[in-house]
Amino acid sequence: MATPRLIRPVTTPFSAVATVPGSKSITNRALLIAGLATGTSNLSGILDADDTRAMAQAIVGFGARAEVDWNTGTAKVTGIGAAPMAGPLTLDANQSGTTGRFLLAVAATGSGAITIDGDEQLRSRPVGDLTDALRDLGVRLESTSSTTELPIVVHADGLRGGEVQLPGDVSSQFASAILLAAPLSKEGVALTLSGELVSTPYLDMTVEVMRAFGATVDQYDGSKFVVAPGGYVACDYVIEPDASAASYMLAAAAITGSTVVVEGLSPLSLQGDVEFAEVLAQMGATVRHHGNSFELTGPSVLAGVDADLRDFSDTVPTLGVVAAFASTPTTIRGVGFIRNKESDRIAATVTELRRVGIDASETEDGMVIRPGPLEPAVVQTYDDHRIAMAFAVLGLRNPGTRIADSHCVAKTFPEFFAALDALHPDREPLVIVIDGPAGAGKSTVSKAIAERLGLMVLDTGAMYRAVALSALERQIDLGDWEAVGELTKSLRIELDGSDVRIDGTDVSAVIRTAKVSQAVSVVAANPHVRDVLKHQQRAWMSAQGGGVAEGRDMGTVVFPDATLKIFMTANIEERAKRRAAESVDFSFADALADLRRRDEVDSSRAHDPLAEADDAVVIDSTDLSVGEIVDKVVDLLGDLVRP
Questions:
Q1: Do 398 and 285 have their domain in common?
Q2: What's the predicted TM-score (pTM) here?
Q3: 581 and 463 within one domain
Q4: What mean pLDDT, rounded, does the chain reach?
């Protein structure tokens, strides 16, 4: 299992232009229609993500030709035109709901047995209302597992068309699927949505993309659609930036009092999720429109809202996160249908808000969020990209937030974490340094802090021990500073958690022996060794993007600009007791004598002696547990990094 990803907090407000990929929803509609159209279409602005790659693979699978350049976001697609897809054929939608559901309806316009399948997660998402509608249109379907879940075999013989009804209070993807297939039917389709309507902007989007490719669609009162037969005609089509992806960047600005500009989107966008900016405005944010872009600036204090998000429900987890920082409670309503998304997004959002300390509760069609103090936590994502991205935003204001299984963002926004970091490009890595004498508990506490915050530990002591071991093995005089310095330059010291390797050999245990312990203080006093390792330590921290470093001069020499500096100490008797317990080679008396010698060497050496940094916080660990020390450090960190 991958290590949960730590989100680095923002320490000061920022101003940035957000990097937002193309719309997933529009990309998948345009790819599918281009694959069905007569002629060759040129698409630009397409999103490179798991869902869109699934659709691109599917249209090639049913016979279209597609030259896709994911790096430039362009595609040249030659559709199948009048030649319908023909089975036997299996099309895999992976985890993409739009791909699987759209293909299920479009397959009915072909001939032969066409199987629509997907990943286990997609198989668990019901499609019963869609299959009922297709059967009403005369389509014969067969399922090997459940009549309401994939995989489903479409025994296609062309789609006759006619009148059909769908409930309007479930997934809009079902209605979009029927609409997308309708121009390929023999008689056309009249679709009526019954009951309360949700996610209507997605239906409007479907209609507009269909019209761009030559389809004739008449819409009445938002609930009835009449689509004429005649198919699709190729065209050149530009895809908007993804408004759902933009919502995370806007939320980041809202909770940090910062300014974000999103280019390529306007209030006239095809995507309903642009309305999320207006909800943030109700909470106190300032929204300005500049032609085909808009700018949002977060307020000094956010207010809670009562918001119906039925038309842009993908933003529910994001609003839940923003609401955690408001001054008053927030109610989200109208979104009961999102329980059947990649996860139960109501339950998932509420559960993870509670995990970080927020009082949140589910309602029948949404949730209530009551703001309060937050706590560090590892957020579970349920393999749902929108939960992962929303709670990553929360981490900008809540130190110690880690995102489990963060790779799931690749479903719709593979570069999400890079885009989040780019909002504040000058933000320094989160570096915590812990200095102090031997036996003060630095190593144990460093590991515990790193575990709490999801950071890696830079065990500088292990590096000096590795040099000491190598010098002893080569019988180099430890007093020959230049020779030991040259040896240090030649060594490849690797730290991987608690494992230490020298030139690929595991030395984790042997560097902890009494012989090495007695030699390491002499090596650590060597200015040539310290200079070589200082650069290696900085390179390690840069590569990791932050971490916890413990040693003797981390705050004074190696990382003078660290985020937080701690100087740990304890009385020498307590330190000797700890040191004796760590090694079978040391008695208490031996440990006490060795510590007195090492304290003298460390504090009196000419180069980089042991000393408190001017801005370090001193913690005496004599009578404190590891947990108490970690709590103290996390509290100190929170005071430093919260805006």
A1: yes
A2: 0.67
A3: yes
A4: 90
